[in-house]
Amino acid sequence: MNSLKTYFFLAISSLLIASCGSYTQKKSTNIKEEPVVIANDSLEYQIIIIDQGFTNYLKSIARPMNFYSQNFLESKNKFYVIEWNNRARNPTRYNANIYENIIDYESNINYGLEVNYKLYWYFKFAEQKYRMKLN
């Protein structure tokens, strides 16, 4: 991996959320949710997720970090990343507002438990929020 950090922004515009009838959002009092950073500093790898609701999902719905083994999370993420990237490369077939970026995830690199944990739960969150399946 090159010496520059790899950055990805998985963001959904509020316009898309407001226009999507399948997703309902409670009115907030202008509470801004902080982005979730998935990083492994020793590998200079970072993903920033700016998707309303993911922080709360991670705190309230996702299982604890040590619930699944790193091997389990890596095998799931390998599959999810392949499917995500296929959809990101086909914006005429899939919603380009959801699949905005390619995820640079190499299965032969040890990103660590935290990176794999947050990435896995982002995929589960996206499946639920946007009512889609990545498998």
The total domain count is 1
Note the total helix count: 4
The count of β-strands is 3
From the structure provided, what is the oligomeric state, counting identical versus distinct chains? single chain
Please trace the helix and strand order, writing H or E for each element: EHEEHHH
The CA-CA distance between the termini, in Å, is: 28 Å
Strands side by side in the biggest sheet:
1-3-2
User: What is the helix fraction of residues, given as a range?
Assistant: 25-40%
Low-confidence residue ranges:
1-29
Largest sheet: 3 strands, mixed
Proportion of residues in extended strands: 5-15%
Q: What's the mean pLDDT score?
A: 78
Can you tell me the overall shape? globular
Q: Structural class of the secondary structure composition? A: alpha+beta
Describe this structure in words.
- With 135 residues, this protein is α+β, with helices and mostly antiparallel strands.
- The protein has 4 helices and 3 strands, in the order E-H-E-E-H-H-H.
- It has helices spanning 14-19, 54-60, 70-88, 113-129; strands spanning 9-11, 36-40, 45-50.
- A hairpin with a 4-residue loop joins strand 2 and strand 3.
- Helix 3 (70-88) crosses helix 4.
- The longest helix has 19 residues, at 70-88.
